[in-house]
Model the fold of this input.
Amino acid sequence: MSDLYKKIFTRAKELEGETARFLMDMVRVPSFSMTEGEVIQVIKREMEAQGFDEVRVDGIGNVIGRIGHGPRVIAFDAHVDTVYAGDLSLWDFDPFQPKIADGQVWGRGTVDQEGGMAAMVTAGKIIKEMGLNKDFTIYFTGTVMEEDCDGLCWKYIINEDKIRPEMVVITEPTNMNIYRGHRGRMEMQVRVKGLSCHGSAPERGDNAIYKISRIALEIEKLHERLAVDPFLGKGSICVSQVFFTGPSQCAVPDSATISLDRRLTLGETKEIAVAEVKDAAKRAGYPDAEVTVLEYAEKAYTGLVYPMEKYFPTWAIPENSPWLIQATAAYEKVLDKKPFVDKWTFSTNGISIAGMEGIPCIGLGPGDEVQAHFPNEHTPLEHLSGASAFYAGLVAQLNGKD
Done:
């Protein structure tokens, strides 16, 4: 480890308590999708206190901090909305009263995904203090509504804020490994019509639940036939919800709908996935079943509605990507070990940045993704400082610092 990268690591370690304090400041403010306004202000104040060159909030509610004004543009991203706590009896403490214990920061959002936000703001402080950046304009984005509709926030940043980086670091949890992609996903529904009649004489009607059940069983078989990629693994599909309509509990239902969660591996597209579901309905005997890809059109906390189809493309950068090579070099220099390069199981904002726009992404974040959406969520303190060191070290590496 060179003297510079040793200094970066040491400084990140010195700031570990401050990073944890900021993380806990965020955790204390519940920030579910479409209600992130208060936590965005917490982050904005922190960026300003750490000396960022510019901090602003855009029309959909993302907070965007900037360091530098170089000709090249990169970005670090963390979504700042969290899922709900769920059944509080499964928690050993109040999920929104964070604590430090056993070398961990505990609370809802510490892993998914406010830990990454805290670490990258600390990295910004280090970059400023040490003068690590001369070539780049660096954006640090605290993004909204990801849990409800991943990628929507970056669709807005690219198309409306007109920010198009050369590369984006996604700070979702990776257990301090480097990730280079993940499967895409789709949300679909299949709907069939029936004919209602009195339940005492069901033969007079056409039971829509029976029809949708047969399609659901074909969906189960479809899962086994889906494509496999050596890196990202197998595509998947499952029935996740069932709905029906009918005149009463004593009547044959006149329509039925199933929701589908479809995970897409490399080579699978929206068109392929829709065609497969239509074929499953045909195999069940209902070629006229209606198959739709859902749309997200909810109101941001700013009041803006920015619709997006719920097709989230697969992405992966190649093993020989120059960005991955640079990230690996920075990791080895600042953390003094070789990284494990892998992929996320879940989906991230990369579906919009890389999947739709073709902008390369790499991932590294504090915490283990197993903790995401889990009771008693916690992230290691050493991950917070390690991630801060990596982010600052990556900027130094990209700027040619030895």
